[in-house]
Amino acid sequence: MESQDNKKSHEEKQGEVKMKEDDERKKLGGIKATPFILATEIFDRFSTIGFHANMITYLTQQLNLPLVRASNIVSNFDGTSSLTPLIGALIADSFAGPFWAIAVGSTIFELGLISFTTTALLKSLHPPPCPTLVDCKEASSFQLSTLYLSLLLLAIGLGGTRPCVMTYAADQLDMSKSSVESRSWNFFNWYYFSLGVARLTAVSVVVYIQDNVSWGWGLGIPTIAMGIAFIVFLAGSPLYKKVKPGGSPLVRVTQVIVSAIRKRKAVAPEDSSLLYQNKELDAAISVHGRLLHTPQFKWLDKAAVMKDGEATDSNPANPWKIATVHRVEELKSFLRLLPVWAAGILLVTANSHSGSFNTQQAWTMKRHLSNSFQIPPASMSVFGILTGMIGLVLYERLFVPFVRRFTGTPAGITYLQRMGIGLIFNILTSIVSALVEKKRRTVAEHHNLLDNPKATVPISVFWLVPQLSLHGISEIFMTVGQLEFLYDQSPESMRSIALGLFWIANSMGNYLGTFIVSLVHKYTGHKNNWLPDRNLNRGKLDYYYWLVTGIQVVNFVYFVICAWFYNYKPLEEDMEADFKASEDGAAGNGEVELGTAEKVYNC
What we know:
Distance between the termini: 53 Å
Strand order of the largest sheet: 1-4-5
Helix content: 55-70%
Shape: globular
Number of helices: 20
Oligomer: single chain
Radius of gyration: 27 Å
Largest sheet: 3 strands, antiparallel
Strand content: under 5%
Number of strands: 5
Order of helices and strands: HHHHHHHHHHHHEHHEHHEHHHEHE
């Protein structure tokens, strides 16, 4: 009797300890923690844009590299820095967690910035100036190797921060479907708006310092800003809701495939409720709701077919022999979004070199606002950023409420509709870019400036504003819509990997863009080359833009087909959890507990 009382007392103490732990967890996260993470992202993006926006100028005018080679270095860096996030996402989701991925990535990124800044400060790390752009001495192998090392460190560092910062900030909030629909603001819109603030500051202030003060200060300021970002991120760590990694998603995916192969001769039941389900086993990877069975990819259902004695109380399930419906649907969800995701690759390809080419165009045009001030060429992107920032506010405050009246959709339009509109605007961007370049070159020809690469063509740089603004509008729809789509439609335990996919599309698009530019440069001849090394006036850049336009039209048709056949994932949410989460959210809390009542969403 005494032993039973002791056991009961011990269980009560354990229950009290668990309740205290739950209370402590509920005090973490929420809206009070998110600003620290977003501030980190703002400083991080400011630092990235601060050195990247004007990199083409640094490579062509400080390291004296030819235009196509310099542009390819920029594009290859973009490709590599967009490839590493998938590795970082796998590490974060598997064992490290997003906090440590961000911390380590930020440290490596800071080392890369310090190294890159050093190449500008030390004369031995860059060639002598060449103001005439004729017979310039290019950077030596040693100087380029130092540059490449810096870019490699930057790319590795971005692999830790890019896939994790946004998802970690979102994880501090209640991102369940019901909670998101009840809010009057969209996290992804305001996330992208905050990045716009960082980009705007970088391309205006930092680029001006680089062009008019010194490259040492122009690169040093982003380096200092990144150090501040890291301190801010660490300062907020006591407030963060720590997200525990749910184990390697790749292992779970592999287990589902192996199980399905082992049972390839099994017959899946018509009634999906007869397939193996285990809420307790899936609890850690289905906090916001379990995925429901879908009829697509039926051959994967065989992984959840139960055989005699395979999953009992006395014989726990072996995940290499049987998988739960939720885990099967994780793989299905991931497979479903891949075709839509792939449409982003050619979008990036189309834009991969436009920033570099826009900057080179701006160098040849009239940029004076007064006798003493002229706009830095790389700062022209400010018009696209401003359009994006203003457009995001108008989109959320005017467009969504207006369209919602007709569609009944809480977000106004679906993710796929938003992405499709963005693709259309990007096609218009390429068309306008081709027409403007044709106009610029015609003016240069009219004033006999085709053979004078240093001459200022008497045409205002503001001719570039329409294409930059159209690109800003395109980002409002396509880029933000794609982020929303990948976050919402991916399994919750694979969201970092899904955001890693976003950057993989950037990587593949940039590499493909480099390949296309290299082919165009190689095969369009020496005399009438579309993309000449030194003299843009003798080029046919508008032909390149028409080529890009054609690629995008084909890509848009592909996207429409994929969107037409796409099925949104069905998710079973917990009503009691939603109620508790909404209470926690009102108090600034972020922890969610599972209850009993459930409801189904087609997310």
